[in-house]
Amino acid sequence: MMALINSRCSVQKVFRSSRLALKARRFSSKAELSDKRMLKYSTFAGFAGAAIGGMKLLHDELGGFEGMGRTLSFYSLAIPKYIVYRYHLAVDSDDETWDSLHVETSRLGLEKILELGGFHIKAGQSCAANIGDAFPRVWVDTMQILTDQCPSKPFSSIKHIIESEYHKPLEKVFKTFEVEPIGAASIGQVHRATLTDGTPVVVKIMYPDVERVFRGDVRTIKMFAKVAQPVHVQPLEEIEKQFMTEFDYVKEAQQMATVRENLNRAGLSGDPSKLCAVPVPFLHLCTKRILVMEELQGDKFVTCLEEDLERHAKRLGKSVPQFKEEQEQETLELRKKGLSKQGPSAEQYDKYIRILDIRRKLSNIMAITYNVSIGWLPGMKRKQYVGKNTLPLNHAKIIDDLIYIHGYEVLVDGLFQGDPHPV
Fold it and tell me: What is the 3-state secondary structure (H, E, C) of the chain?
């Protein structure tokens, strides 16, 4: 009997042990399954986090998929041409080869700039202005089109922006609004208009998404500069900081009003006899993407300089290309000797202009005498009078005035206008 009981206990122990083992195996299997699920979830979460981080990086750094496409488009030209330039630098190619390379590359560069727009237009404008005297002449000449002939947006897009900003029809804000822009730049374009009371104004409209595109463009160029031209990285970073402050036209209008008030108070602006003029901003009509200001009449400074150069070359009996070539050759010869060409001072310019003005007046007196006497006879051709607008510009005084105005803004006011347009 005791043996039977012991046998039954043994069987029960074995059965209990088997059940415990089975439960343990089941638990172990569940634990393994749980671990596998956790691994899957962790892997998925890791990929999802990386994807989200990558998308955020793509959006923040390059401006999304559009920005990535712009980056690849920029590199498709920049990298091959950089390699070509490095090759010619290594083999010390002759001037004729460099000239040919500059002509071809500047043309392709302009095409790429016009295709991409954004910050690339700003870079091209810097080249056109030859900031720092760092660009070959052919590059400067090729990029001149970017100073006032940038591609513009269709009027339908501009009208949509205006009505979105004001939440009312265009006709409720402006009495007239010219469809064709008077100028287009990298972040927006400008149209002439009149307010409902008939006041003539110019309206500056910012393009959509331009801030995001600009940020991506700048960082694309910075990445290229880190490899190709590290010396330009720090200036690009400063440029980026500055440009990122240009995407709020309300702030720009407020600063314009402050600069205008400062210069009026200093007697440097305020009426036509002063050194400069600052347009009046209509602050109640300015928004983040729209700037409305007074229209100031004047000629482009570059156009005035070109016309002045033509008149000066004509007085010397030379063509403009001939005069330019002689001046460049003279400058080159001086540089070879370690010298630089010193232009006339503002006072010397004044004396020269007064002499030409006396000659002009004498010429007009002779013309008047001729026209009221011999000029009246049949078959005689009347002489033309010479206007005061034929006198040369005082280049030195223009530079002195700009330095004085900016010096006052920086050193006295602590706020300066960094985008002047001398006329």
Answer: CHHHHHHHHHHHHHHHHHHHHHHHHHHHHHHHHHHHHHHHHHHHHHHHHHHHHHHHHHHHHHCHHHHHHHHHHHHHHHHHHHHHHHHHHHCCCCHHHHHHHHHHHHHHHHHHHHHHCCHHHHHHHHHHCCHHHCCCHHHHHHHHHHHCCCCCCCHHHHHHHHHHHHCCCHHHCEEEECCCCCEECCCEEEEEEEECCCCEEEEEEECCCHHHHHHHHHHHHHHHHHHHCHHHHHHHHHHHHHHCCCCCHHHHHHHHHHHHHHHHHCCCCCCCCCCCCCCCECHHHCCCCEEEEECCCCCCHHHHHHHHHHHHHHHCCCCHHHHHHHHHHHHHHHHHCCCCCCCCCHHHHHHHHHHHHHHHHHHHHHHHHHHCCHHHCCCCCCCCCCCHHHCCCCHHHHHHHHHHHHHHHHHHHCCCCCCCCCC
